[in-house]
Queue: 4 jobs
Job 1
Amino acid sequence: MAAAAGLVLTVLPGTADATPGRGVSAVTIFDHVIGDTDYVLKEITLAPGGSTAGTTTPAR
């Protein structure tokens, strides 16, 4: 498993550009670990006129 994680890290691109979200809030309702898996339930609220973050990737 550790070798696979190292491989994933070496394959990922160096950086990404992102714009911050506006008018977004999150509340964690449930967070529980079972074995190696973390289960998380969140309530995400977007205010009128709000937006989530946007990202750009270089053209290939």
Note: The first strand starts at residue 17 and ends at 19.
Job 2
Amino acid sequence: MTYQTRKLALSLLLGAAALSVGGCVTDGSGRFNWPSGKKDPSATPQATSPVAASVPTQQSQQVATKVAASVRSDAPTRYVVRRGDTLWDISKRFLRDPFYWPEIWNINRQIENPHLIYPGDVLLLEWVNGQPRIRLENDLGPRVRISDNAIPIINPELLAPFLRGPRLVEPGELEAAPYLLQTVNEHLLASANDEVYVRRLDNTPTRFWQLLRRNREYLDPETGELLGIEAIYIGEGLLQQHGDPGIILLTSTTREGLRGDKFLPPPISPPDLRLSPSAPDNIITGQIISAYDGINNVGQYQIVTLNRGEREGLVAGNILAADKRGGVVLDETADPVSPRVLLPNDPAGLLLVFKTYQRFSYALVMQADRPLAVGDIVRNP
């Protein structure tokens, strides 16, 4: 569902509830949030009118209609989750628009981790009052699992370039990171199987590290703001000894490490991919600011960096639409001069945000109807 739809539907429902109690709104516990921001002086709990709260708005009905229309005509009524499945694949099996998954996934909050789906789970597609619902076949009793690993939202192997390639880090993050002092064997260059002394390793719980080297700055193409610093991937290491300096064993390298190179934890781990596809809660309009390997034509399952992040309301699991930016052409037919004409943006695919930072985020191209490039537009689906 789009941000505008959610916001309008919620506003209308809260407005109706507020009128029913004389201009104030309940916070769900029976207390009121007064317009001034202060609590009701009497602190007397009251209930929102059940009639007002249950009246469906025209907007909510429109959203419900879109959700129902998104169910595929060939969607199964019963599906057994298998090893190798991803939540994206399952969402696409039931829905044409996977960002509607939260609208139809019916969870039982009495069971542990109800949002997680495991191999062996049986999903049932049902219709309740004309609305689609997907639930577990046995959502009341204990779940019988053939695996203890919940299915991820995407295949982790698709993110291999992200785990072993250049990455953006927050401004100031490298300056505060542990850094390579020298090799234990006093070599000038560090490579795989070398132990290295590292400053700032006292009392860290992190065992696995990446060795990185500062490269160039990335600026917001719209505002010129510093978004992040690109760090070049050097290799990986395993903590051997805490301290300042401590010791890390370099387990693999793609180039030699130098004194002053930085150590940071890996940017993502398997639990980070236990997400549900969803539409952003806020209005998002941004750009692709880089593509892995610097390619000009970005296609399906390739990784891009966006100039929007947590401060704009993006979270991992959000789905964004991607538009090919309209070009500028000369109208040679116009008289007396040839004006420059800006062509409209053209819908080109879908992106799945899988890692967010304060100022930027990473996304995987899940659908590409035409090649994308740096500078193309991302927005709410």
Note: The two ends are 8 Å apart (CA to CA).
Job 3
Amino acid sequence: MIQRCLILLALTASTAYPQAKVGTSVTGFLELSPSVRSNGMGTVGVMLTDHESAYYNPAALGFLDNKYASVSFYPRKARLVEFMDSSSIEYNSTVLTARLPDRVWSNSLPVGIGIAYQHLSYVDGPYIERTYDGIPTERTFFWKDYADCFSVGIGYSGVVDVGVGVTYKDLSEEVVDYKGSGDAFDFGLLFRAPLNGLFLSQPHGDGYRLRSSLLLGMSVSNYGSSFKFMGGDYVLPKTGRFGCGMELVYGSERMRWLSLLPAYEMEVLFPGDDQRTGKFGMEAGLADALFLRVGTVNAQEGLVGFDTYGIGVSSRGIKQMLLGDRLDVPASNLNLSKFLLAHLNVEFSYARIDREGNTMIDKIDYYSINVIL
């Protein structure tokens, strides 16, 4: 009888996930974003090229800014209204990325390759175990969902930058004495093109000018067989995304003093009821040191729209403003301290999703610390 009760809880608890629309809590957490930058921008991400956006589009790994590797730890805690004896939800993501050295490729071939590993964990509870008749027992339990994601992306830089990527996901869940498993694939394409003649000014002063680029991204996520749990098969939330953005940057080759990135993304869930979600986000940056982010998500079937906002701080721009040319250290003079000063950067990001009146989760806070080398 307890087993039948757990199945009922699985079907009911799926509404705890902010964007889950297919299946149960077994797979619903796959639609949660592990990118704090994206969460602050209305959860748009398929056209972005930072290392965390590889979860939306693995093709982004071909255009990583870091020369060596990066790692981020990302916690999320959600505040819930009272429901099903659940007290809290925690969601964590650790992202490791690396870019292969340029010497791997021919000097005449402008190709970059990046790899990533992401571990996502979702813990919901504690729940009070109940019998089929709804009588509470003395036991409590947690829903524990995990995903291990292995990604690779290749990017070609030319007149138009073109990237492709693929991700493999190993999925698992634990509830009391029951375990489930499954796997899935993501595929992505990414295009970046300078808009010559549009919002492009001639260099002046110390080489400062206004530049613009068009960003296009598309991906298919969670393509695979069903998730097997407690003798049942659950449909994975297959999701198609298409997004575009325009990046405006004022600065020199060394310093991006001002930047603005408006972006729009359409998300379609299939198979199903042809559910579409429109998202709009914007990021404004100052000297590559301070970033302000806002976004909104249009209403979905059965839900209401919600707004997001966020902030980011990066040591990259701060070091550039304070040290300038002193960061350019000849390789022959490099020691460990100078190397770390020149190449090691730390980024902190915060985002808030305000879903009050939308689901059980009314407000969600996201934090991440990203170390880039």
Note: The CA atoms of residues 310 and 351 lie 4 Å apart.
Job 4
Amino acid sequence: MYPAPFALERFFARHEFSARYLLSASDCQGPGMAGLVAGADPDLRRRWETLTLGYTESQGLPELREAIAATYGGPGGAGAGAAAPGGNAGPSGGAAAGTAGPPTADQVLTAAPEELIFLAMHALLSPGDHVVCTFPGYQSLYELARSIGCEVDLWEPVETVGAGAVDAAGGAPGPGEAPSAVQGGAQRGGGAAGAPGWRFDPAHLEALLRPTTKLVVWNFPHNPTGALPAAADFARMVGAVARSGAWLFSDEMYRLLEPDAESRLPAAVDLYERALSLSGMSKAYGLAGLRIGWVATRDAALLERMKALKDYTTICSAGPSEVLALMALRSPEPILAANRARIARNAGIAGEFFERHRDTFRWVPPQAGTVCFPRLLDDGPGGQPEAADDRAAGRAGGAEAFCAAVLEGTGALLLPSTVYGYGDSLFRLGLGREDLAAGLAALDQFLSSR
């Protein structure tokens, strides 16, 4: 069965390269190629200058895989949060893999991140398998499982605002909620129960798991909400998956974009022997055009199945992309520090914008990563959100109509929650690009003129 059309990618195919301000981007604005090459060490510059354009190794350039493997097992890696409440014994008696050290280069497969999702799902799943996946999110994380014939349960977050919670796609706020409770420019890490923000409840995951669950898929830091579990929540999540014996596919594309190292979660591959950690150059490094990502897993048989499937997709990566990715990974901190600083600066700008328009929007700053998920309020007293069924029924003033009007009136592209199939009350805003301030200024003028 063919997967359903990828709504988000079709949306961006129509608008991404014609919009004046890309306010919905999920990546960071990374370095240009000239700067990347100029900052490389002499060995890599020589390699670049003498590079030939033939086939490359299917698993990936060995030196690149070595640099990737070195990103695991450090601070926020194997040593952080490995113990789960109640134990985390897996199907072979011990899920924690941290004591084995970080994954090796031989336990890494490189390809485009989207391709790796495709390879992993087809290597792991069969018709009738049960899958649990965070939602809303990147569509291929759950849609590919559906297309294979799996039963997919969606694990949705709760948005906590002040003293109350908003249910998933747009239910009513709790008693006594004040919109100002979530205004401000600070980016926070580690969402805990009761704190303002989006939270994926470990108890909900535990309720969704079955003895027969084949795969759990999650994405943290989360796109589009900006949610980042607290360390205790995350340990409980890993423990629950391990006790079930399921595989864990951990989308970590926004990892390393936490506001501080203390809130960074360990990579799943550093904690659990049946985990796959997905990452790449697109988001944290701002080098999406390289189309270089990777999966790290300790399971040799699974990795072999993925490598065999890759023979039917791209076979190998482009040599220039591999070398440019290696340049970034050998000198990562200037790139990452610049991107984190831009996100923090833009979060402050966004906080000021949403404070000015608190009767129109409710905004919870992201706990980590590049994106957030503001809520469009109606025009009624107190700015209360419309009920989800009102949005679904196409009530005028929904997020989809609002985003379309903004695009037409300003050239600024926002991503409505309808693209995620998640009601019509929210939209995604990206904080990783330099033109955020200019785009929000145009949006300011648009709102003032209405």
Note: Residues 68 and 105 are 7 Å apart (CA to CA).
